[in-house]
Amino acid sequence: MTVTYDFTGHVALVTGASSGMGLATAEAFAAAGAAIVLSDINETALAAAREAFERAGHKVAAIACDVADEDQVARLVEHTVATFGRLDAAFNNAGIQVPPSDAADETAENFDRVNAVNLRGVWACMKHELKQMRQQGSGAIVNCSSLGGLVGLPSRAAYHASKHGVIGLTRSAALEYAPRGIRINAICPGTIDTPMVSGMLAEQADAMKEILRDQPIGRLGRSQEIADAVLWLCSPGSTFVIGHALAVDGGFTAH
Ligand SMILES: NC(=O)c1ccc[n+]([C@@H]2O[C@H](COP(=O)([O-])OP(=O)(O)OC[C@H]3O[C@@H](n4cnc5c(N)ncnc54)[C@H](O)[C@@H]3O)[C@@H](O)[C@H]2O)c1
Which of 76, 170, 184, 204 has the fewest CB atoms nearer than 10 Å to its CB? Predict the structure, then answer.
């Protein structure tokens, strides 16, 4: 059985849209009829993604943006609205990993960088998306957290701090905007088969064994499985779901 959504006439913005789960989610929104704004820091990959969407006949714009830079984020949302007239759904997905580190040895540079992209980036995107959505009185935002937003793991303190922060941002802003017709939720993926994870698996020999041990389903997640959950959170199927941190993790956090 395939679940289908109809986002015809809607405008969706995805950050980190050139790769992994951002790309899969952008494809899913476009396949469901949305006009889609792809955004990424990687301009080459972004151009390739835009061409593929155009070839597939989708309504698409591509806007390069480093989410760690608030001015660029402000321009991203302005450009989105100038191009398509409104903003209905946003997946604030852009994020990075930093190498695992003993907490006593973590560098300030790594801590600041991972929080600048994963936490401040989500804050800036949400802030500027809300400026548009509060004028419309409608919209749905999904912020990308992680299983790392729900649990701790040794040697991952900086990344997990950023992802726990995303849930705090999400819950507080969701309370503020629920009465104004705007729903804000977070998604907490388990370990998903994306380029980010291939990089980690290449560097750490035992990582796959640990993932299969911790993820009761016994496999990596697929980007499409995250896209399905994000589209649901932006759809009329989830109108009473607000301020929720949804684990999509093959059972990891059920332990
Ligand atoms: N893959 C996983 O197992 C997993 C699990 C939990 C959460 N996540 C989170 O999911 C999100 C997407 O991860 P993915 O696995 O698809 O990774 P990915 O590396 O495949 O894709 C991330 C995308 O974000 C872009 N990006 C990086 N820094 C950016 C910046 N400063 N501004 C704009 N774009 C930027 C990259 O260019 C890339 O296209 C991230 O927030 C990540 O932390 C991933």
Answer: 204
Q: What does the DSSP assignment read for 75-143?
A: HHHHHHHHHHS---EEEE----------TTT--HHHHHHHHIIIIIHHHHHHHHHHHHHHHHT-EEEEE
Q: Which of 25, 27, 38, 40 has most ligand 1 atoms within 8 Å of its beta carbon, as the pocket-test mutant? A: 40
159 is an active site residue: yes
Query: Domain residue spans in the chain?
Result: 11-194+223-247
Ligand 1 close to Cβ of residue 133 (< 6 A) = no
Which tens digit of pLDDT belongs to each residue from 23-64?
Answer: 999 999 999 999 999 999 999 999 999 999 999 999 999 999
**Which CATH number describes the domain made up of 11-194+223-247?**
3.40.50.720
Average pLDDT, the chain: 97
